Amino acid sequence: MAALAVLVVEDEVMLRRAVCRYLHRHGCRVTSAADGVEGLEALRRARIDVIVSDVQMSPRGGLWLYREATALRPDLVGQFVFCSSEPLPKIAIGRLHAERFLLKPYAMSTLWEHVAELGQRIGREP
């Protein structure tokens, strides 16, 4: 079975590196991006199973990435873990009902629980 492919989209360099290392140690094949634009390019280049994305990034954030990614790959609906330092606005919550959400700061073990569950959901485990 192929390793679970996770895309980490985070503009905070130290957090992005820490999340990538953590997921890699748990057996994932990890790709990273600094914003939504880079994340979408990564999706176009590689098979990705799960996306861990910050919500607020410049020039394009996680919600933009979600719209573009799920238009490109509808199978990614339900495969996002969003992370943010602020709660999502109610209007966004309705559109993202199938997605996971973590409030920063979060425990890496909590992130791993979500990523592992999403991997199991599609029949891929790290």
Task: Write a short abstract of this structure.
This protein has 126 residues and is of the alpha/beta class.
Q: How would you characterize the overall build of this protein?
A:
The protein has 5 helices and 5 strands; from the N terminus they run βαβαβαβαβα. The protein has one domain (5-121): 3-Layer(aba) Sandwich (Rossmann fold). It is globular and about 35 Å long. α2 packs parallel to α3. The longest helix is centred in the C-terminal third of the chain and has 14 residues, at 108-121. The protein starts with a strand and ends in a 5-residue tail after the last helix. With 126 residues, the protein is α/β, with parallel strands linked by helices.
Keywords:
126 residues, alpha/beta, Rossmann fold, 43% helix, globular
Can you tell me the overall shape? globular
Instruction: Please work out how many helical segments DSSP would assign.
Output: 5
Strand count, sense and barrel status of the largest sheet are: 5 strands, parallel
CATH topology: Rossmann fold
CATH superfamily: Response regulator
Cα-based radius of gyration, to the nearest Å: 13 Å
The sequence of SSEs as H and E is EHEHEHEHEH
Overall pLDDT confidence: 92
Tell me the strand percentage band. Answer: 15-25%
How does the helix and strand content classify structurally?
Answer: alpha/beta
The largest sheet has its strands arranged as 2-1-3-4-5
How do the strands and helices of this protein lay out in sequence?
Elements: E1 5-9, H1 13-25, E2 29-33, H2 36-45, E3 50-54, H3 62-72, E4 80-84, H4 90-95, E5 100-103, H5 108-121
Parallel strand pairs: 1-2, 1-3, 3-4, 4-5
